[in-house]
Amino acid sequence: MTSNTALSLILLLLLSGCASQPQTPPEDTPAPITSQSTDDSANAELTASEQLSSGKTATIETSQGRIEIEPTVVDMAERAPATGEEQAQQYNDPLEGWNRGTFAFNHFTYTYALIPLAKGYEYITPAPVRDKIGNAFSNIREPLSMLNNLAAGELKDAGTNLGRFLINTTIGLLGLFDPATAWFDLPEAKQSIADTLAGYGVAPGPYLVLPILGQNNVRGSTSVVSEYLLDPIGQVTNPPDTYYLQGVDAVDSFSDRARVYEELYRQAEDPYLYFRNQFLQGVKRDDHFSQPQQ
Question: Would the pTM of this model clear 0.70, i.e. be above it?
Answer without folding.
Answer: no
